[in-house]
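INFO  loader      accepted 1 record
INFO  loader      residues=174
INFO  predictor   begin
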Amino acid sequence: MKINLAPIKFSNKAFLERLIRDLKNVFQVNIEILDLFLDISDSYSAERKQFYSTKILETAIKNTGQTEGKILIITEMDLYVPVLTFVFGEAQLNGKYSVISSCRLHEEFYTGHTNNELFYERLLKETLHELGHNFGLLHCLDWDCVMHSSNSIEEVDIKGLSYCGHCRKEINLL
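INFO  predictor   done
INFO  writer      dumping tokens
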């Protein structure tokens, strides 16, 4: 098994390297940076000033079908799905593809103050969350579990930074 991190319009290499280390510790698999060029311009909504996450995933599926392992697209662009104002990410349940946005994970988005440690913790939580869906996990009722659903940044901050015992068992991390 392999997990590919595919940065698209995500420029912070230090956070990517840290993410690779932390993901290797959790999943015990090979984690690599996938140099991926995707034309996602058709996923942009000028009206919303956001990118449609499902269309980004569709574009990735069309252009990376032969790539081995999971593919997690990481972007700084703001994402949405039509029924929600925004999403932190989207993933195929039991699938290969997921996307997360760091846009609304930055503390300065809410308060104007930079907090790199808080940003990284949020980035790691959402990465683990979307990969959990790729590995077949549904949303968890346990607030301490990273698989708890998050519809606001406060909910991201409240939930834990790891999988609960039940979720760990479901994806064989025990």
